[in-house]
Amino acid sequence: MPFKKIIIDIEKQHGVSFNYTEDNIADLELNPPKKSLSLDQKLDYLSIKTNLSFENIGNQFINIYKKEREQRIICGYVFSALDKKPIENANISLLNKTQFTTDSEGYFEFPKEDRNTFIISHVGFVSKRITTGNSDSKNCLQIVLEPEITELHEIKTNAILASGISKNADGSIQIKPKKFGILPGLIEPDALQTMQQIPGVNSLDESVSSINVRGGTHDQNLFLWNGIRMFQTGHFFGLISVFNPNLAHTISIYKNGSSAFYGESVSSVVAICSNPETAEKNAFSAGINMINADVYAKYNLSKKSYIEISARKSITDFVETPTYKEYFDKIFQNTTITDFSQNQNIDYKSDKKFGFYDATLKYAQKIGSKDQLILDLITIKDNLEVFQSATVYDINKSENNVLRQQNYGGNLLWKRNWNNFNTTKINVYNSSYELLANQKTTLADQVVIQENTVNNNGVNLENNHIINSKFSLNDGYQFNEIGITNLEQVVNPDFYRKVKDVLRTHAFIVEGKYNDTISRIYFKAGTRINYIEKFKKYIVEPRLQFSYGINKNLNLELLGEMKSQNSQQIIDLQKDYFGIEKRRWIISNNTTIPIQRSRQLSLNLFYKKNDWLLDIENFYKKVSGITTSSQGFQNQLEFVRTTGDYEIWGAEMLVQKKMNHFLTWLSYTYNHNNYHFANYGYPTFPNNFQLMHTVSWAGIYEKNNFKIALGTKWSSGRPKTSPDLSQFDPSDPVLLYNKPNSTNLRIFSQVNISSTYKWETADGIQYKIGISILNILNRKNEISEYYRISSLTNSIEEVETFALQRTPNVSFRVSL
Description:
Layout: H1 3-14, E1 17-19, H2 22-25, H3 39-49, E2 52-57, E3 61-66, E4 73-80, E5 91-94, E6 99-101, E7 107-111, E8 116-121, E9 128-132, E10 141-145, E11 155-160, E12 162-168, E13 173-175, H4 191-194, E14 201-202, E15 212-213, E16 222-225, E17 228-229, E18 234-235, E19 240-241, E20 250-254, E21 269-273, E22 283-289, E23 292-302, E24 305-314, H5 322-332, H6 336-339, E25 349-367, E26 371-392, E27 395-417, E28 422-441, E29 446-466, E30 471-491, E31 495-516, E32 521-532, E33 537-549, E34 554-565, E35 567-570, E36 584-587, E37 596-609, E38 612-627, E39 643-659, E40 662-676, E41 684-686, E42 693-703, E43 706-715, E44 719-720, E45 743-744, E46 748-760, E47 766-774, E48 782-789, E49 796-802, E50 807-815
Parallel strand pairs: 1-3, 4-10, 16-21
Antiparallel strand pairs: 2-3, 4-7, 5-6, 5-8, 8-9, 11-12, 12-13, 13-20, 14-15, 16-17, 18-19, 20-21, 22-23, 22-50, 23-24, 24-25, 25-26, 26-27, 27-28, 28-29, 29-30, 30-31, 31-32, 32-33, 33-34, 34-37, 35-36, 37-38, 38-39, 39-40, 40-41, 40-42, 42-43, 43-46, 44-45, 46-47, 47-50, 48-49
C-alpha cells in the first residue's frame, strides 16, 4: 500500500496530522500496520520498515524526517533444541548491561556496534554466549538453546516418619499435607499434631496450645499462617489445631537454625503456607468428623487469578459425640467450671454451650508476567457459655460464665520477579487476638470481667538475588508493632484496672546461601539486627546452617542461632479465665519483664542407605530473661515474681526402615533441663517441662488407597513438687513445700491407632473415610499434680489432672 495512504488512514483513526516533504515519501510502499496497534506502536513499525524517523508532538502533530543513515541492527530468533519451538521472554544481555527479551516468536533485535557480544539465557536452558563481527549480513541469527538439566533443591529424605514429610538441607522439617500418609492417632494432616511426632517436640498436657520444643514454653514458638503471626493456635482450648488441615500446601518446622527473616521467638518456628507451588484446577471438598464439619473450595476466575475459601465449624450445637464428651472432660477438669459442682449434690443444674469455627479467604492475581498479588484473610473463634445453679441450705447460688477466644488476621503480599535473578516480596499484615471472660454471680450480685487483647501490625520487605548457580543473597527490612491490653473489672466490690503497652521494632536482615551439590556443601549464614524504639536497644541475632556430605549416604549438619522475643504469656492466677485458658499475653518492659534471649547450637548426623535412615541430633540451648509467672508454677513459686533462665542439653535419635509398603520407626529423646533463678532460695532445679526420656514407635502400612498406623509413646513423668508434711499443722494450715520439682509424676504411656481408606467413582468424585482411637488401652495417664488446703477439712488435698481416656474419632470426606 502507498505510504501516503497509510498515514492518511492513521490520521483518520487517531486524530493526528503528519508534516512531511513529498520527496521523503515518494514511491514508498509497504504493508500497513495492524489497526489494533496503538499510535506509538504504528510509528515504531513504520520507522523499522522505512528509512524515516517520526517526531510525535503531543499526539497531535507528527513530523517525518529522513534518517541521516540507516541504523544497523542485530536480529535473531531463539529456539528450543528439544522441540524446535520459539522461546518467549529469553533474556538478551549485552556487556554494557543493557537487556532485551524475545517476543512470542522468539524474535529479538538491538542496534549493532562494531563488535557485539551478548548472552542469551532462559530458565530451563543452558545460557549461550554469542559474538558478532563487522559483517553487514542482513540475515537474522538462528540461535538454538539446549535444555538445562537442573538439580532441584536437595531434600535429604522424602519420607521421614510418614510419606509427605521430608527433611531439607537447611535442617527444617517440611510437611506437604496433600501428600501426607498417616500417623498413629491422626486421620488428617494436622500441622500441630504432626509436629509432636518429631523428636524433641512434646506437649505435656496433650494440647496444641501447649507445645514444648526442646524445653521451651508454647509462647516461645513462632506460628505463622501465610505471614500472619497467630496468637491462638488451638480450638477446644487446645485439643484441635486452628489451622485447617485440608488447606495448607507446605508446613515448615525449624527447631534450630531458622532463617534470619524469622524473628520474635526464642524456640521453634512453624510457618504454614497455603500458596500452591504450581497452578491447580478448580476443586471442592467437604468433610465431617465427630467434632467438626468443614468445606473447602478453589475457583479459577481466569488464567491469572483464583479465589480460595475454607470454613470449619464444630457440630456440638447439634450432637454430643463420645469424642466431644472425652474432650470436654479433659479440658474442664479442675477448673472453676467443675469446682462449682463439687460437694453440691442438691438441686444442682448446669447448662453448657460450646462451639468454635474458623474460616479463610485467599485471592491471588497475577499482573503481567512479573507481578503477583495475594490477599489472605483468616478468622478463628471459640465460645463457651456455662450457666450453673445450686440450692444449698435454702440459699440459691448461680453463675453465668462466658469465655471467648478469637484471632483475626490479614496479609497482603506483592511479589515481583524483576528478572530471572532478582525477586522482591513485600507484605503488610495485621493480627488481632482477644481473650474475654465474663462471670456473673447471683449470690453476691457480682460481675467479674477479664480481657486480654493483642494487636499486631507489620511490614516485611525481602529481596532475593541469585549471584550464580551456587550463591544467592537475601536482604530485607521488617517493621513490627505490637500493642497488648489487659483489663480487669469487678462490680461489687468495684475494681478497675486497664494496662496497655505498645512496642515497635525495626529489623534489618542480610543472609547469604552457598549450595554446591557436587561437593555436597550447603552453607547459609545470616544476621538479623533488631532495633527496639521504646528501649533504644539494638539486638544482633546471627543464624547459621551448615551441611556437608561426607559421602552420598552420610551427612554432617551444624546449626546455630541467637534469637530474641519481646512478648510472652504469663499466668497471674491459676483461676484466671475460669482456669481454662489462664495465660495472658504481655509485653516486655526491659526490667521486671526482660526481653527473652536464646542461643542454641546443634550438631547432627544423618545416614540413609538401602531404605534405612538414622538421624542423630545433639543440641545445647539456653534461654534467658524468663519470668516465673510464664512457667505455670503451682508450687511455692506460684506467687514469686523473679527472673532467670533455663538451660537444656540433650540428644534426639530417629531410626527408620522402609520395606515395600511397610514403614516403621523408633525415636528416642534425652533432655536435661534446669532452671536458674539466682535470686531464689533454690537457684537451680529441674524445669517444669523436662521430660528426661521419651520413646516413640510406629508401624505404618500403606498400599494403594488403604493406610493404617499403630504407635505408642512412652515418657518419664514430668517434675512435680511435693509438700513438706513434717511441718504441716492442721490448727494453722499453711502449705509448705520440699525443694521445687524434686520428684516426678508416674510414667506416661499411650497406644494409638488410625486408618484411612480412599476410593474414586467413575465420574471423578473421591471419597475418604478414616477412623482413629487415642489411648486404646484406656490408660489413666496423670499429666499434672498440685496441692491445696481443703476448706472443709483443713488438710492437704492432692489435685490431679489426667490425659484423654480412650477417645475414638471417625471422619468422612468428599472431594471433587
